[in-house]
């Protein structure tokens, strides 16, 4: 028996409160902002639920911690059983859901069964497909049975969704949720549409007591409005990847009234390039795009050096990714020569290349309300035009945009990798799901079936050397096929007034550690 070691619409904003009264309130309430409401906060479901808020209410069996380790959460110990596919968890005693229901093995089983009842919805996550069932060995011990070995099991149990736990009293027979009730340090107290979500400290939380009593999350959809609210003292904190544009962040960094910080790289900002759609089904076109876009200029002039440039699908500090791969050097003349060699010519007086009477044009898709995506798309459009490719900008609402990701109706489309603890295994696992842009982007590759087969094998394999070699083949193949254009490595940015004290970064991109703010 292998014993696993424990590892460690814009709201009306209130007038600011000045002086000692404001400082006193800051110790009790933090005013934050987010572009949308927290959502219905079902722990097993997705959009419109916001992951930062799901993590405030719901907890996992094991927790991901900075540096790539795992620590106890609702489970205190765990072990892989001799069959190599079943995991036994000893549950933390004395934990109750915020409605008073005990957290025990029966609660774990009820939640796992609710997830499995909706298995197709979770097809992106390999662990859900591999779970055979859960059983209570005794009131405080649970066994998770898998169909076979799966090395990332604990990492995927640490994800913010879907394998977290709601009170069985709130789970309906159809899998829906009567009210959002978890074991976490916060409870949802109030939602006022178009204005805010209010979270209150869970008085019966089993862990360390948060210093703050309330988190008021104002719905502020526009980054300029968020900056003005920070200036006016109407919100205390901006935290996230794109909550403020780069120029505004630099302005706050130069203002002595504010504290700013940039996290280490968390994930990759990229565009998927469609190998199954004209004209990017041609490798020479994809390679010319990779050579013809000035990544360094994007980072300097659009991102304003708030994110480091990315040359690979994953940062090299993730497991199995330190392969020494490098993007082709920006070289406009070489990109043009590559297109010429492939038969793409510029007719006299034309700006867009043609071959066999067809223009070299593609749809460059982004979320219309995302100002940063729009700015990057416009810069890429300009670079593509300089080598004779027309990039038709298509900015749409989030729902339509996501529909394009699922259907493959794009030439290039924005996306991010998921960061720790998803990268590389879970992100690559999702490449096999047709509902993902990654699947659609790879669908035209001659070796797509081989890619999917190898992903399946690497996730199930137990031999470390074989796993590393399989990741090398997969990542090298995707890199050489130029189905991704990495832009930068995503970072979280923090801005707050100095009197708030220290605001730490969470262990993952979506984890905002409100419970650790104000602890000194």
TrEMBL record:
GO terms for biological process: nickel cation transport; peptide transport. InterPro entries: CntA-like (IPR011980), Peptide/Ni-bd (IPR030678), SBP_5 (IPR039424), SBP_5_dom (IPR000914). It is found in: Periplasm. GO terms for molecular function: heme binding; nickel cation binding; peptide transmembrane transporter activity. Residues 70-436 form the Solute-binding protein family domain. GO terms for cellular component: ATP-binding cassette (ABC) transporter complex; outer membrane-bounded periplasmic space. Pfam families: SBP_bac_5. NCBIfam families: nickel_nikA. Belongs to the bacterial solute-binding protein 5 family. This is Nickel ABC transporter, nickel/metallophore periplasmic binding protein.
